[in-house]
Design a protein that fits this description.
This protein is an alpha+beta fold. The protein contains 4 helices and 4 strands, in the order βαβαββαα. The chain has helices at about 20-35, 50-55, 85-95, 105-115; strands at about 10-15, 40-45, 65-70, 75-80.
Length: about 130
């Protein structure tokens, strides 16, 4: 991919995972199904160990963890239950919640900015 991940108001949904994580492996198919369910959003599967250049010092303790951003604004960063319905409900509600912000705003913003600068991330194929 040679262009930036997001446009000004486009939604970005990033699953932060690890290749060794059994839960992540099981969740990947569900995450890909969500990409088809939300075609207006861009979905990225990111292995945190393979892409330390993007994740930086981010310390993921629970997999899967999700970053959701709209344009250049992070809306959510944190672990989610590995169930499709949980993330689907969040993705349905975040666009209506203009005040939504992650618990650690600076950490989420920094990660989102690194992702936006990376031009070689693989989108989830739909």
């Amino acid at each position: 991919m040679t262009q930036k991940i997001t446009k000004a108001d486009e939604w970005l949904v990033v699953c932060l995972c690890a290749a060794w994580c059994g839960t992540c492996k099981q969740y990947q198919q569900s995450f890909e199904a969500l990409a088809a369910q939300f075609p207006e959003m861009r979905f990225v599967w990111l292995d945190v160990e393979d892409r330390e250049d993007v994740t930086g010092d981010l310390d993921i303790e629970t997999f899967p963890s999700i970053l959701v951003g709209q344009g250049s604004q992070a809306k959510f960063l944190g672990p989610v239950l590995p169930q499709t319905g949980v993330l689907a409900r969040m993705l349905q509600s975040l666009p209506q919640d203009a005040a939504a912000k992650p618990a650690d705003v600076q950490e989420a913003q920094d990660l989102l900015q690194r992702l936006l600068r990376a031009d070689d991330l693989q989108e989830v194929l739909r």
